[in-house]
Amino acid sequence: MSGVTPVQPPPRARRGRLVRVAVAAAIALLLALVTLPFAGLLARVSPAALASRLATPAVLDALRLSLVTSLAATAVVVLLGVPTAYVLATRDFPGKRMVEVLLALPMVLPPTVAGFALLMAFGRMGLAGQWLQAAGWTLPFTTAGVVLAQVFMAAPFFISPARAGFAGVDRRLLETAATLRASEAQRFWRVVLPLAAPSLLAGVSLAGARALGEFGATITFAGNLPGVTQTMPLAVYVALQSDLDTAVVLSVILLVMSFGLLLGLRAAPAGWLGTGARAGRPGRAPAR
Amino acid sequence: MSRRRAPRAARAVLACALALALPAGAPAAEPPAPLRVSAAASLAEAFTEIARGFERSHPGVAVRLNLAGSQQLAAQLEHGAVADVFASADERWMEHVAARGLLAGEARTFARNRLVVIVPRTNPARIGRLQDLARRGVKLVLGADAVPVGRYSREALERLAGSEGFERDFARRVLANVVSEEENVRAVVGKVQLGEADAGIVYRSDVPPALERSVRTFELPEAADVIAHYRIAVLAGATRPEVARAFVERVLSSEGQAALVRRGLLPAAAGP
Question: Is the Cβ–Cβ distance between A166 and A282 less than 8 Å?
Answer without folding.
Answer: no
